[in-house]
Every structure is written in C-alpha cells, then in structure tokens.
Structure prediction request, 289 residues.
Amino acid sequence: MAPPSRPRQVPNPWNRMKAAPQDPLESAGLPSKGDTKLLDHKAQEAYYQLIQGRWLSLCGTQGGPESLHTLLSTLSLSPSPSSSAPALTFPPREISLLSLSLRKLREATLSTHRQDTFTTTVYTFSIRFGILTHQPASYSSALLHLLYTLHPHTPLPGPLLREFVIYLILDLASRRSLLGEAYAVRHRFGVHDVRVDILLAAMTQGDYRRFFKALRGVDGYQRALLGEAEGWMVRRALKCVGRGYLGVGVGWLEGVTGGRSWDVLVGEFGVGWEREGERVLVRRVRARG
Prediction:
C-alpha cells in the first residue's frame, strides 16, 4: 500500500524576504534602560569610532576630527544674516541618530565611572555637535559635566578649557538670559576674551550696534549659541528706531538690525511700518488743526 501523499506546500513569498540590516549605531541601547553593550571600555571606544566616522562622512571631509572641527567652526547648520558663511544641511534622521548615539555613549561613561581623556574627548565632540545642531538639551548638561566634573579630575588643556568656558558663558548670556551667571563663570575660570567681553557688555547695555559689529568676528559655534541674543538685539534696534525716527532708508534699517532683510523684519519680527520705495515711514506727523 502506497504511503499517503503529503499535501503540496505553497511557498510563502514572505519567508524569502530578508530582514533589513541593522544600523551599527542602533545595535546598542541606552544604559539607563538596562542595555549593557556599552559598559565595556573597548566597546565604548569602538562605538565612538562609528559615531565619528558617520559624522565625518556626512560632512564630506577626509581629514581627522581636528580638521573637521576647524572646518565646522567656519560654517553653520542654519543661515545667519550676520555672516556670509554657507549653511550646512543634513538628513534629520541622521542628526537624530547621532544625537541619540552620543547620549548612549555619555550614559555609558557615567555608568562605568569613567573620567579619563577618552571621556573628555566624547564630551567635547558631543558638545560641539549639539551646539551646531541647536540641541540645548544635549550640550547644556554635557558642558556642565565637562567643566565641573571631568575637568577637575582630568584637566583640559588651556585652549580647550578656554573654548568650552566661552561656550558656557555665551549659552548662559544668550539662551538663558543669565548675564550675571555668565560674568560669574568668566570670573571663576579666569577666561577673558576681547570679543566675548564686548558681546557681554553689549547685551548688558542693549547696545545693538556694538553687538552686531562684534558678532561678525565669531566662529560657527559661537554664532549658533548667540541666536537668541540676535533676536533680542533686532527687537531692541527696532524699538529704538520706532521711538527716535519718523522715517529711515530700507538699507539703513537692514544694517542696524544685523543684516535682516525687509521681508524678514516684516515676516519674523512683525514690523508694520509702511514702505515707500527705498524709504520706510515709521511715523506720520499729525497736522495741528
């Protein structure tokens, strides 16, 4: 008697589909969520090389991290009217992935109580990345940890210390509007920079002319930190013009507001003055009758 024939199985096309390869940066999770892949020093260093390599490839440079830092200090990730530097644009997903990867690495160094030169390298890279990509939640706490926890244990070289103290000063003065704390940080670390001193004095006094003049000489990182202060100074300039002038030239108005175009002043700053050709009518004089 012949054995019963088995029913023919129709191949499932879904079984032939291969899973998409996982991004190496997504292979590790957050240590705060219980992932242990980065709790080894060698694993941390290998992961950092992946992050650095991805950032280098995005920026299109073949140099090392220092040449990349030099390049990015002359550029910006968002256009600024006060600078002729070109703006860089990156895929948002890549920026989010790198930001999360750097957070994983910082958490891993904290979990393993690591305070060596490698850790300071991770933090300096992370802070620069966070500043250029406008992520205060990423760079603010990292700046404090670098200067107040890592630096006392593993002292930063003089130029590096100066660079990151200036970042903290500008962040306090601009984004957080804490000018008193900015001056206190400058005094505590003994960092004095002529341009930063001018910017702080201009912000304290509301001197928009000095502010925009000094702003032309800052690098890409400092310019990114001063974004909120630029907005204040534009509004300060507009307020002074509104109080002191009946009419001004369009070019002059754009100049005293740090190079903002007339369209930007109308669209972003709510300027409602009338424009007549190349003149702006600030106020009309009422005839006495």
The radius of gyration is 26 Å. Residues 92-111 form the longest helix (20 residues). The CA atoms of residues 230 and 258 lie 8 Å apart.
